[in-house]
Fold these 4 entries.
Entry 1:
Amino acid sequence: MSVAPGWYVDPADPETRRYWDGEGWIGAPIPVDATPPDGPPPPEPEPAPEPTSPAATSTPATPDVPAAGTPSATVPQGSPSGWPGGGAAPHGPPPGWPGGPASSQGGPAWPTGDTPQGPPPGWPYPTWPGRPPAPRPHGMPLASFGARLGARLIDFGIVFLLNALVNGWFVWRYLQELSAPLDEFWRRVQSQDRTTDPLPAAGDQAGALVVTILLIATALWLAYEVPSMAASGQTFGKRLLRVRAVPVEADAPLGFGRALRRWNTLGLPTLLWYCCGLGLLLQLIDALSPLFDHPLRQALHDKRAQTVVVQLPRTPDDRANPPGETS
């Protein structure tokens, strides 16, 4: 691939144009909407040499042992900033560009001399070679789906016990309202009665009792989860399995508003359980959504509240030195 000399949009700064001489970028950039001159830009004047003191000229240079407070090497003009070690830019394209050491595209050799700022016109930007590493929000690994599911099942068990204490009487009254159709249904099963007559209607208070039971169950779940998540990002189940919900932008408490938004997506569908199981279906989709989200493994309620669930380190050293890194 050979790129003809000319003025092109600078890949490193799309707001400017620079002149490509066939081997590298030369001259100063101009605005992208300006009319470029014909031919290459005029050569830039060489900077005047800095005056040196008599002591500096009489002392032999020691390039291998730099003086204190001075950099060990200088990045030459024309090389991108941030090369490893701050030294001279290596010749040849970076890994991932055509013709580079990590490229499988073949392509022409990179021009000799100082590496230009950005790829030549029409060349792709470098990409991460292989699979990128797993994100570590705020220095902590993401919690696995198994740990999140285990914590949620523990919390559901606690909320179920609370409902047994608070909602038990209403559930007993609801079963009494359903006793007539249930008894008739069981009698037909035992006697193998194939009649098509409708079952007796439930009691008059059955509908009101269903609404009351679901309202109490939703309120108990909200009271159990939202305050603890707002304060620490953890419920009892999350504490046992050492997982925590944190905001995407900072390692900080969620606050009541964010914790409430996070719970609403998963908790409010409880009120729709009586609609042919619609609420249970919505909650199942939300619970399984982290399996299909990449790279942060966010559930639908995490996306609404802009949170991520991380695995807490066992010791402070585990967070400072994650696996595969050394201090």
Entry 2:
Amino acid sequence: MNIDFYAAFIIGLMGAGHCLGMCGGVAAALTMGMPTQQQHSRWHYLLMYNTGRLLSYMIAGAIIGGAFAGVASLSGSSYPLIILRLFAAFMMIVLALYLGQWWQGLTKIEKFGQVIWKRIAPKANRLLPLRSPLAALPFGMVWGWLPCGLVYSTLSWAAVSGSLMSGSLVMLAFGLGTLPAMLAVGGLASQLKQLLSNLYFKRANALLLLGYGIHTGYIAINQIM
């Protein structure tokens, strides 16, 4: 499997604390708001919600990956993808600085998605209250488009994946990395959040991403030169 898939999975795993902050409240709310007689089905709701979220990631990855692969094919050169990979490396570095709490520039990038999200969010509200686990699937698909710097960073890797399918798989790997935290909403959420919020843990992971981003950028620059 391409190393970008592993990198995407690690981004999701390491950014789980951010995921709990962005989507954890929503996941908790949908289980608390379910009918009393269905409280025993909370895991079904969570699973369907997260399945919908991952489907949205995969659709976005397929669109981005396919579009940029088409541009590269039409140009008859790999140069556009090399430039894009350099940008992806930059996004990885920005993400590492954000996760390590050294620089919060990624939050500025998230603001660009707010324009679209304002149009999408009302559609999610119309789906509430959820009457069955199956209803959590479209709800999760809508919330999958929530403006998120982690998603944007990973989409830059989907863009240079080389194909529609690879772009979709990169985003699937990212989504799978976020699952442990999102499925732990409730019973294990407090313990998991305590670990993920530990500054030393976050910075150790951030240094790994930083190293990968610098290495990728170095390779892209060498290909250009």
Entry 3:
Amino acid sequence: MDCTKAASTVEKTICASAALYELDSQMGGVYRSLVRATPQAQAELKTAQRIWLKTRDQCAADVDCLDQRYRERLQSLQKQLSETVAYQPVEIDRLVLEDLRQAIQTANKTDPEFPLERALDSFAIKTGTTTFSNVADDDNAFEEAHFPKIIPVGVAQDEWQALTASKVESAGENGNSSYTLMDLDGDGLRDLVVDTYSGGTGLFSYIETFRRTGDVFVRRTGTADSDSSSESSLFSLNGRGANQSVYWINVRGRVYAAYRNSYYGVDQLYLLDPLKITGAVPIVSVNYRYQLSVPKTQKDDASGTSIKLDAVLHKALIQALVNVSTTEAKDVGDQRTPLCPIPPAGEGDGAYYSYGPGHYSFEIVGDTSVVIAGQCYIGRLMDWFGGYSAKDGLYAQLDVRKPDLESAEHSYTVNGRRRMTGVTTSIGKFEGDNGG
């Protein structure tokens, strides 16, 4: 809006408010981008915008009313723009899916525990990349780390000039950010991947991408006006609870950020085009079945000591696992019958149907009854979203308590060795989406 020409009450109110003027500027930018992106629908867009302007003008000098109208319209236009320009898979993406499926099935013949990892490793980008991080000043350790002041090893002079000209420094918690140069679009110029640690409850890291365009790096944005890492990120990684990771792979000459989001019994792999707004994405799903076991020797992490379970308790815990799914997490679910008999008096009925509330940092595989020496206990098998290692296999925990919410609980380590049961491919929505 040209405030030198403001004439109506609404226009003067907008020009008198920095917040409203900023919203007007943002909306104008998104609207123009949408018009350019949809030439066939320009007449329809202009009509809709004129109708909205009439609705806006009804607010007159009411700042709160104008703020609400602008935010509603801006959100609507941003959604339309994202849907319009979002990447949709093409034939080569489907061929890549089939390549991955076959590679996973081949790897399964020799390594049924880690077929996905083996297949991804065969496509991983292992050359042509340079990574560096923010640095802290030696003379002031209390200051946050910042973008390097001298050219890092492995960065070409023209890349350094483009980096400094683009002001790509990311402000992670305590300055924790890293930068990777790699060619993401096959044009011979290395693009930029920025990993920013933001901390917070989930210990999140946000990964953004920038395309090398001439003498600058241009940020890929999740929405038309994204200006922060959380809004413009290609994806995020949750460092507490969730089991997520990324592999940068090259298949058939195309680079993907292969984002893995895992749960008990399944690895979901999303193939993200690193420089485009995310629409529908190619997905690979790898399913597993576990053979669960309870180690006879249990370690107490808090005290560092170990105890050996007696035969009766060990057998009871093993028997309890028979009632737990070995292929998928059931969560608490709809318990139609109590896990233990409900006495005529005592705790409310609810205490007998499930173990109780869970927590976001672990995954509830299922609740079960545990019968020890003729007494019925409530048990819950939980894991850390399919977290798995070659040494220990699945790391899970069986919590056991009496049917009394106030009673003390006992925890026992449960391990599981997995085997792949199948791999499927599809096109669908990206679960880890952050606005793109």
Entry 4:
Amino acid sequence: MAHHFNSIGGSTAAIQLAGIRPDLSDVLPISAAERSSRVNKAAMLMRLQGIDGMLLTASTSLYYFTGLQWYQSERLIGALLTPEGQIVYVCPTFEESKVRETVGQSAQLRLWEEDESPYQLVAQLLADLGCATQRIALDEAAPFFVFDGLRSAMPVTSIVNASTVTAECRMHKSSAELALMQKAKIITLEVQRRAAKILHEGISSLEVAAFIDQAHRAFGGSSSTFCIVSFGAATAIPHGPDGAQYLREGDMVLIDTGCKIQNYHSDITRSYVFGQATPRQRSIWELEKSAQAAAFEAAQIGVPCEQVDAAARKVLEAAGLGPGYETPGLPHRTGHGIGLDIHEWTYLVKGNTRPLAAGMCFSNEPMICIEGEFGVRLEDHFYMTEQGPKWFTGQSESIDAPFGA
């Protein structure tokens, strides 16, 4: 077997798991005061936009504004926000005690029985609150049946997408949110470093993914929110192939994974070679790092999001890749927003002219796909400060030492 560089291989899952010491002493949950300020901002945006009420369903936006986490089902459960900043929860009667565990005894709840229409209840609630019902905003993550139910209960009401309120709040992260994401990303980068150490010829991608899940939990994070482990030619498939693969000498390795801390996401990709990198693998890896660096440098306050994507593509196209979304090249956008959802507003993609602003967080992952050969994705995230972009985790050092010396 060829010499493996800088901690690629040479250890075992048991040894790496035994070396993990969790420390969540610096993790602070989002405060009630911060949630209250979020609601006030949403109410202000509703007033500016002429929205008479906003219905949040079982989604990350419900959690963002209220702290209530619920699963999506066929029963309507959620919260109605008024332009005055009032919150009234709507839920099945039999779920009241469970909902109150989070929202408390003083919260306003409107309950519906199994044989009643929750949509009629929402219409009645709006009337009782003295809200006009010309224009109601509905959670963008709401299932169609909720929209359909509201439309039947309030046929003359205009139902609009609440993302003009929710995304406008959520895409600008507070220092408390940034700290939670920073913690999640530090954990995932360390898990990535340990995963590289357990590699050996013949190991299966499923075994590596199982280790990564255990390691995320050992550090005090959630289970892996997702995990892509690809070897060899399969690394050119952006979201990985189905089924098991087995590692061979000289394979490109691509691992993309994340976890959550207090429901805030990490999402980091590392690419490197098991064994000796060929000149071809080395040059493509360096090109990927250059494209990632160009995107970061382009991300300045006030610059349209699409210019960040364009900066990465310019590097790749100058090297003969693409153009556009053609492969060999970059077949997807350069980056996505991240927070309580792994992909959320806003996006680093052509056509998005929204200017970059403080508190926005993005993945930076201008992947190079060479179908039938290999792919390279380096993914780190940055957030915008008033002075410009700041990495959560710095770029991978080199193809030979992806986690540093």
